[in-house]
Fold:
Amino acid sequence: MNYIYLKKIRIIVSLLFFIPITFLFLDFSFHFAEAFSKEILFLQFIPSLISFISIVGVTAEGFILIIVLTLLFGRIYCSSICPLGTLQDIISFIVKKLTKRKAYKQNVDFVRTKYSILILVILLFLFGNILGISLLDPYSNFGRIITHLVRPIAIFANNFTSSILESFNNYSLFPFEIKTISLVSFCFTFIFSIGIISLVYFKGRLFCNTLCPVGTILGITSKFSFIKISIDKMHCTSCKSCTRVCKAGCIDKEEKNIDFSRCVSCYNCFSVCPSGGISFKSQFQKDSVSSKFSTSRRKLLTRTLLISVLISEFVLSQSKVSPKKASKIAVPQKNHVTPPGSDNLEIFNSKCTACHLCIAACPTQVLQPAFLEYGLSGFLQPKMDYQTSFCNYDCKICSDICPTGAIKTISLDRKKTVQIGIAKFIKENCIVETEKTECGACSEHCPTKAVKMVPYEKITIPEVHEEYCIGCGACEFACPTKPHKSIYIEGNVQHKIAKIPPKETLENQLKEDEFPF
Structure:
């Protein structure tokens, strides 16, 4: 039976998953991710599993389909659906083109290491610590690679092209501003990428078979697969061609055996075997019998693979007031702010895998990677960074695209009333107090008018009405005082609901803001 087309099918399926997922993190319009992220990420194992634990529903059961596919055909997820797996294949292709290294070698199965890592990750998760998953989940690592290494390059290319087009009065592209770069997240991602490249160069898919918890789980599952790739010893000529192309290093060239638990179903072996000594074998076939698929089974495999494919500047201006004196009172923030829809800090920290899709999709870039603000368990998870930007009052993209349920989907009307934090005013830092100068930047930019200016020594000074504040951070971002802000957001450990300000307040404010001409 001729199976050489399986590799081509696998490559096509891999690209059909890889390209849309990559575009989720590179989309500058902020609409693609919001509209299609749930469908595109449906089959990503860890996000689907965590989402299923959070909210049992059809939209969160992609990992069950992955387990079913693995029980039928082996690690289809690792070969075609996992974006980090496809990225490793692309790296391997480039390496082979640029170097003389053309063949893989048989790898040792580090059984104790991979099971120890899996047990540690599971135990941490059971105790509410998601750090192990965040650091090793293949989807999350892929997201960070695209967000922090590839996206800046894409933005530079976009801005460069935009500037050229503008010189010809063509404004089809708009420039995109990067407000800040997280050095910690960049360094971690860069080191991880170097590690992946090194492993791919020397050991092929060793990461997938040793360090990746998803690979280990699916490896255990694949031991019970109904259909497996095997070597027919009667037809094998011991040419060792299959061993040289096996990226998992799972073919024993001496014993003529395949460790199917480590096989990532790349089908490279089918494309090089000259004797037809490699074929599929069902659990009910004996080793001595030549294993071949019937036409119906071959059609079933092809159809299953095809069916599993997923069809698939708004910047708030700072006040022009420039302080002449440095503020002296440090901001006494106790709790950091989590995005609307995350409900509370504990839930958010226990479900977020730090894939950084929300960071890439946030139009105002207020979401930035955390260092140790949440503690070690929250390393690299998104935080609301009001020094960098603010949360747009009319935006809820992060809640629409989160694949794990760490940020739940909420309506825009509800989002506008969710109180993720409360503004706190430090009078001693305010330039109205220190320099007797009019400012009002915080009040001007507050969307709910929770911050109002009240009379104070012949001028006006901010006053916070906490019941109307939603914690969007517009006031903190707009505040000109340095190095310490005179107004900041104190995070709510448990999100609350803010009161809707009286219409009179909003109408009066609009009248005050009207231009005098």
Notes: The CA atoms of residues 79 and 492 lie 43 Å apart. The first strand starts at residue 227 and ends at 231. DSSP finds 23 helices and ten strands in the chain. The longest helix spans residues 138-167.
